[in-house]
Every structure is written in C-alpha cells, then in structure tokens.
Amino acid sequence: MLINQLLNTKGHQVFTVSPEETVSAIAALLYARRVGAFIVADKIGRVVGIVSERDVIRALAQIGPDALSRAVTDIMTKDVISASPCESIEVLLDRMTDRRIRHLPVMDGTKLVGIVSIGDLVKARISVAEAEAQGLKAYIAAG
Asked: CBS domain spans which residues (predicted)?
C-alpha cells in the first residue's frame, strides 16, 4: 500500500503551529487535539520543523519549568525527515524504526499534503495482511 492511498482513507488534515508559539501553548494543543506532534510552519507555509511530545518532555527534563515559556523553535526538530505520497508503508516503517521517530510529514515536492504516525502505518499494514489472509482462505475454500 502506498502512502497516498493511506492518506485518502485517513485524511489529509495536518495541524501546524508557528515557530513563535510557546512550549506551554504547544503542550496544551497536543493535549487538546489528541495528537503526538505538530508540523512547524513559517508564515508562508514552509515546513521548518516538527515538534512532538518527546521534544516537550526533553525540554522539561533539560531546562526545567522555564522551558514552558520558550519558543517552539528552541525545542523543535529542525532536520525534518519526510515521506513522499508514492512511498510504500513498508519503506516508511523501516525509516521510522531506523530513525526512532513516530511521525512523518508527507510532502509532495515542497507542499505538505499529510502526516502519518507509526500507528497509522502499523494499522494499515495489519489491514493489508488481514485482507491477504481472507483472500487466501477464500481461494482455499473454493478449491
């Protein structure tokens, strides 16, 4: 299964935040939106980073409570690893496992078209495996 197929099912909605938002505001938004990460985009919509729950926790552990008043640009991951809509789930599962990341923005050139989590990919992979198993059962039963 390709990522564009997954996004067509899951949806293309992506929550973005500005680099100037405070870590405190980001923590509240992560909780309110029930997501694990936000794409950080500049004023013209370019992806400049990604900020996750892990980044917030890391900042609190390293800086302490003062981290909450810092700008998200101070704690975000700036070297964003992304995916292409035409990549397969298997390729992205390997990339995410190797890099120890849980969220990937999906980019069509320079345009942000979605985001996938490792949970999305695992769920889709299980769905494909179950469909294959059902197909084999039907084939055997018909034979």
From this structure: 8-68, 76-132
Expressed as residue numbers, the domain containing 138 is 3-142
CATH of the domain at 125: 3.10.580.10
Query: For residues 104 and 115, is the Cβ–Cβ distance under 8 A?
Result: yes
pLDDT digits (tens, 9 = 90+) for 42-69: 999 899 999 999 999 999 999 999 999 9
> How far is 71 from 64, CA to CA, in rounded Å?
14
The first and second tokens of residue 122, run together, are: 């695992």
Q: Residue 133: left (phi > 0), alpha (psi -120 to 50), or beta?
A: alpha
Domain count, the chain: 1
